[in-house]
């Protein structure tokens, strides 16, 4: 009997996280729904169950050391390992204009978008090391690309903010450094593209299904696949 792949998706109670979880569950994976709000997470599990898909709730607040440690303990006791970690949880952060943005606004955004992935990755590393094929996917954004945001033909260049874009640039750097520090892993960042989610008031032209293409692709990458890269559904994204 083939051993199932065990994947944890943070921020999986809605949007990109929930759709990623649904698609992975359809592949027969054991999917763990990481959710800060346990009630919303339970509703997400029930939603997948209504579609005939199996998933498990892991209460997980990426901004809390205690919550993340408890989540890692839960997964360890239930499964003994983790094959795929998808660091998806993120916030848009303050919409204060750049010249009015201060450390508090930056800190609030970074706590989820930067410190969260560091906190979760570190806590789950022992379980990932027990996998024969460990993979980490960082859900970034084209807003974190210096090349993309500097291209006047791209919509990302029209957004002027210190918080969210810089947090995703930081996440991209974390990706390259983790990839170098974990040579036996596949660690990559993905740009979902301008996707209709709560994060942008559902204004994006892409469907959530399209927005999860790169996430699902990188979650399933083989042992000889890329690591330390940045990709969207069409291929590599410039840093």
UniProtKB/TrEMBL annotation:
Domain of life from the UniProt record: Bacteria
Pfam families in the cross-refs: adh_short
Keyword Oxidoreductase set for record: yes
Keywords: NADP, Oxidoreductase
InterPro entries: CBR1-like (IPR045313), NAD(P)-bd_dom_sf (IPR036291), Sc_DH/Rdtase_CS (IPR020904), SDR_fam (IPR002347)
Family: Belongs to the short-chain dehydrogenases/reductases (SDR) family.
Protein name: SDR family NAD(P)-dependent oxidoreductase
Organism expressing this protein natively: Pseudonocardia eucalypti
């Amino acid at each position: 009997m083939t051993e199932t792949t065990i994947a944890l998706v943070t921020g999986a109670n809605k949007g990109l996280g929930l759709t990623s979880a649904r698609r992975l569950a359809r592949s027969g994976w054991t999917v763990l729904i990481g959710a800060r709000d346990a009630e919303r997470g339970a509703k997400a599990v029930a939603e997948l169950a209504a579609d005939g898909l199996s998933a498990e709730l892991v209460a997980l607040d990426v901004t809390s050391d205690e919550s993340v440690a408890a989540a890692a303990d839960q997964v360890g006791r239930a499964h003994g390992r983790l094959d795929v970690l998808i660091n998806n949880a993120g916030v848009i952060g303050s919409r204060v204009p750049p010249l009015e943005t201060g450390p508090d606004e930056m800190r609030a955004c970074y706590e989820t978008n930067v410190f969260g992935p560091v906190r979760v990755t570190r806590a789950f590393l022992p379980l990932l090391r027990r996998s024969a094929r460990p993979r980490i996917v960082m859900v970034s954004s084209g807003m974190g690309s210096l090349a993309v945001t500097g291209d006047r033909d791209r919509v990302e260049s029209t957004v002027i903010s210190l918080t969210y874009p810089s947090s995703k640039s930081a996440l991209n750097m974390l990706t390259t450094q983790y990839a170098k520090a974990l040579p036996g892993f596949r660690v990559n960042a993905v740009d979902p593209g301008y996707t209709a989610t709560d994060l942008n008031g559902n204004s994006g032209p892409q469907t959530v299904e399209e927005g999860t293409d790169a996430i699902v692709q990188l979650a399933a990458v083989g042992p000889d696949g890329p690591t330390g890269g940045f990709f969207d559904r069409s291929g590599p994204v410039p840093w």
